[in-house]
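Weekly modeling sync, notes
Attendees: AB, CL, MP (scribe)

Item 1: holo prediction request
CL wants a bound-state model with 2'-deoxyguanosine-5'-monophosphate before deciding which constructs to order. AB pointed out that an apo prediction alone won't tell us much about the pocket. Agreed to run with the ligand included and paste results into these notes for async review.

Input as submitted:
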Amino acid sequence: MPGCLFCAIAAGDVPSDRVLETDTVVAFRDVNPQAPVHVLVVPRRHVDHLHALPADDPLTGDLVAATQRVAEQEGIAATGYRVVANVGPNAGMSVPHLHLHVLGRRPMGWPPG
Ligand code: DGP
């Protein structure tokens, strides 16, 4: 989608610190990390947010698989990690392209802010 930051990152037109790429998904480090591991898992195809992704779309499974691979690669699968998908303004979504935050390597509080 023209003007979309994460479409541009997925296409390689904007640089990022990539940790994983597949045919359908890219994962890169968040520019403003909130934990020692903070990776964004992003579909190459533009989807506005999680609520706009049909549950039976194969991309749903691709995003889950990529998230699991990132956690394994980053060494946080055994100790635990958090996955966050902000959807819309009340959640504080700032980049309107579906992304999963994968956060780890520190204990986290609950409830989130
Ligand atoms: P959200 O608030 O859920 O929409 O999260 C957007 C995240 O994207 C936020 O944690 C900061 C990150 N971010 C914004 N711009 C860039 C960028 O240009 N590069 C990278 N790597 N991350 C970005």
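Recorded for review: The helical segments are 5-11, 58-74.
Action items: CL to compare against the apo run; MP to circulate these notes.
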